[in-house]
Amino acid sequence: MAKRDYYEVLGVPRGASEDEIKKAYRQHALKWHPDRNPGNKEAEARFREAAEAYEILRDPEKRAHYDRFGHAPAAPPGGGFGDFAGFDLADALRAFMRDFGGGGFGGFGDAFEQQSARGGPRERRGNTLELRLPLTLEEIATGVEKVVKIRHMRACSTCHGTGAKEGTTRKTCPVCHGSGQVRLVQRSILGQLINITTCDRCRGEGTVIETPCADCAGEGRRREQSELTIQVPAGVSNGNYIPLAGMGDVGPRGGAPGDLIAHIEEIEHDLFLRDGDDLLVEIPISVAKAALGGRIEVPTLGGGRAAIDVPAGTTPGKLLRLRGKGIRSLKRSKPGDLLVRIDLATPAKLSDRGKKLLQEFDELPEAKPAAPRRPRDDAGR
């Protein structure tokens, strides 16, 4: 089902201030809070929807992106806040607790820390790991397959992730009887409230280990080194990232694995500057070539060369364009261009004959410089 407009969800105009957005969210959160609507799935969905809208609109950067692109993710394969496909009741409750405190809803922060909205034993998800992925311009231009080595927590091969000694099993927690949580009913000005806390005995897992695995000390996981292959598409840039689902740390005792996030880092090139999908290179030419014009060869990314015509009367700083010789784009099918900025190679030393020729040239009427003029705003660009 298509998502509703976030402004519509909170009932505020698109130009609403931060205070107006916060006030509207609080009204919706109190109206649809699960404690006021026990067992009401529609109210729970409205509560989550309001929290999701608030999380985007309260953040200036996320709000600006939403105003421009709607519900679309920030950029493939990364580089932004992404969507909220995994925004569950736990996230919604944390958002409410963060900005409005307990307010009669105490206890939810711990109870839902890593627990599904349906309740029950908590599955502790593993950590999300991050790494830097340095790339050359040549690799960025074509796309590349990178092999990296990481150290991350993997399921213990001895106990197969249970944390219990081989031949034994985990037992149901005698305190919470397998629910992973302890509930306390309270009354407040809002009516009957249920204060949910994580079971201290089993740490919310619903089961306990009587005889832990000796190899992993009951954790159900061990740190190992893995070799991973990362497919990098052409056209990525600094700020992009590539998520690898499930390649982070596995959770303790059978918990789901976290993700691995590879952050793109562009290595500075010795010759080319990058401007989006375009490349820029500076080529010095002789005074004669600038005056007479002619064809020159320029280097291209990857070690090739391409010919380009220099118009007669070319001045320093002039930009010439080789179309399609830039970087392949993430968003367009056509690659960018190679921009060639012309510079004049003035000889530092001259022979007697060279000096004589230049002096003769300087005496010609057409060699006289033009009158002084005001610089252009775009000079040298």
TrEMBL record:
Main location: cytoplasm
Name of the encoding gene: dnaJ
Molecular function in Gene Ontology: ATP binding; heat shock protein binding; unfolded protein binding; zinc ion binding
This protein's name: Chaperone protein DnaJ
Family: Belongs to the DnaJ family.
Subunit-level organization: Homodimer.
A Pfam entry, by short name: DnaJ_C
Role according to the record: Participates actively in the response to hyperosmotic and heat shock by preventing the aggregation of stress-denatured proteins and by disaggregating proteins, also in an autonomous, DnaK-independent fashion. Unfolded proteins bind initially to DnaJ; upon interaction with the DnaJ-bound protein, DnaK hydrolyzes its bound ATP, resulting in the formation of a stable complex. GrpE releases ADP from DnaK; ATP binding to DnaK triggers the release of the substrate protein, thus completing the reaction cycle.
Annotated spans, Disordered: 359-381
Organism the protein comes from: Eiseniibacteriota bacterium
CXXCXGXG motif repeats: 156-163, 173-180, 199-206, 213-220
Record-annotated J domain positions: 5-70
Record keywords: Chaperone, Cytoplasm, DNA replication, Metal-binding, Repeat, Stress response, Zinc, Zinc-finger
The CR-type domain, residue ranges: 143-225
